[in-house]
Write a structure and sequence with these properties.
By secondary structure, the protein is an alpha/beta fold. The longest helix has 18 residues, at 73-90. Strand 7, helix 5 and strand 8 (184-187) form a beta-alpha-beta unit. The model has no long low-confidence stretch (mean pLDDT 93). It has an 8-stranded parallel β-barrel, surrounded by 6 helices. The protein has a two-stranded antiparallel ribbon with strand order 1-2. The protein contains 9 helices and 10 strands. 39% of the residues lie in helices and 16% in strands. Helix 1 (39-52) crosses helix 2 and helix 3 (103-111) packs parallel to helix 4.
Length: 276
């Protein structure tokens, strides 16, 4: 498996699992405690995440929960570009990703210091995304989805879930390679066009995705398949999240995308104790 990606000349090594901390500048996030309201709050939030061990900070401007309202690229950019510029200024050594499925947002954020593009649509919402990523030479996180955030929970039929997700990601990797994009990470898309049982099934079968030979990111923090299974709310789903993070690590996850960096770091530390 590819063990490194190149972020503006800095090699990120995934022989040790990494943490991506989530910064929401969207008022309709499913987990309201993660939403930063002011410049001071977002700087303090990121400062704490870095202190607790975040390797990447992921900045997103719109919710991608089921049935969320889809912003136009101009609206999304108004939210994320000034925040990203502020964070790059305050934390110049930190690696930042931009959570967007719009090529224009990715390009604009590259200009203010984004290092990675995190696209939950795998290039299916904006057909210009792959060309934009090739132009910026930024690493690209390719996520599996069926439909869009507005339609995905009505598109959960698969003949063979694991095989179809692998095939989707493999096709995208080939297309990206043809454009000269070398630094690619993959995400199986927990919650994006999958039922609760399907999400658990993907976690059980994560090791199969190592055949794609790309670093594997998992985004399951406080998601509904956890809190609904426990009859809880997102606010009470940290313990369940940590349990699922350990399963993900044991099955080959290289990056955990999380709201709670301290607890994820502890999980990785214990995982490494189990796998010295």
């Amino acid at each position: 498996m590819m063990r490194t990606i190149n972020c503006r000349g800095i090699l990120m090594d995934f022989s040790c699992p990494k943490i991506m901390g989530i910064v929401n500048v969207s008022p309709d996030s499913f987990y309201q405690q993660s939403v930063a309201q002011t410049e001071r709050q977002v700087v303090e939030q990121v400062e704490q995440m870095i202190a607790e061990g975040a390797d990447i900070i992921d900045v997103g401007g719109q919710s991608t929960k089921p049935n969320s309202i889809c912003l136009l690229p101009e609206e999304e950019l108004k939210r994320v570009q000034p925040v990203l510029a502020l964070l790059v200024k305050n934390f110049p050594q930190q690696i930042f990703s931009i959570d967007t499925f719009y090529s224009s947002v990715a390009l604009a954020c590259a200009d203010v210091g984004a290092d990675i593009v995190n696209d939950i649509s795998g290039g299916t919402i904006d057909e210009k995304m792959f060309v934009a990523v090739a132009k910026t030479k930024m690493p690209y996180i390719c996520t599996h989805i069926q439909g869009t955030p507005q339609t995905m929970q009505s598109k959960t039929h698969y003949n063979d879930l694991c095989l179809e997700v692998i095939q989707f990601l493999d096709d995208k990797i080939v297309a990206l390679h043809q454009l000269g994009v070398k630094d690619i990470l993959i995400d199986v898309g927990i919650g994006f066009g999958k039922t609760i049982p399907q999400n658990f099934s993907l976690l059980q079968q994560l090791s199969f995705f190592q055949t794609l030979e790309k670093p594997l990111l998992i985004g399951l923090s406080r998601k509904s398949f956890i809190y609904k299974s426990l009859s809880l709310t997102p606010e009470l789903a940290l313990n369940g999240t940590t349990a699922m993070h350990m399963i993900a690590l044991q099955n080959g996850a290289n990056i955990l995308r999380v709201h709670d960096v301290k607890e994820a770091k502890e999980c990785i530390t214990l995982f490494q104790c189990l796998n010295p």
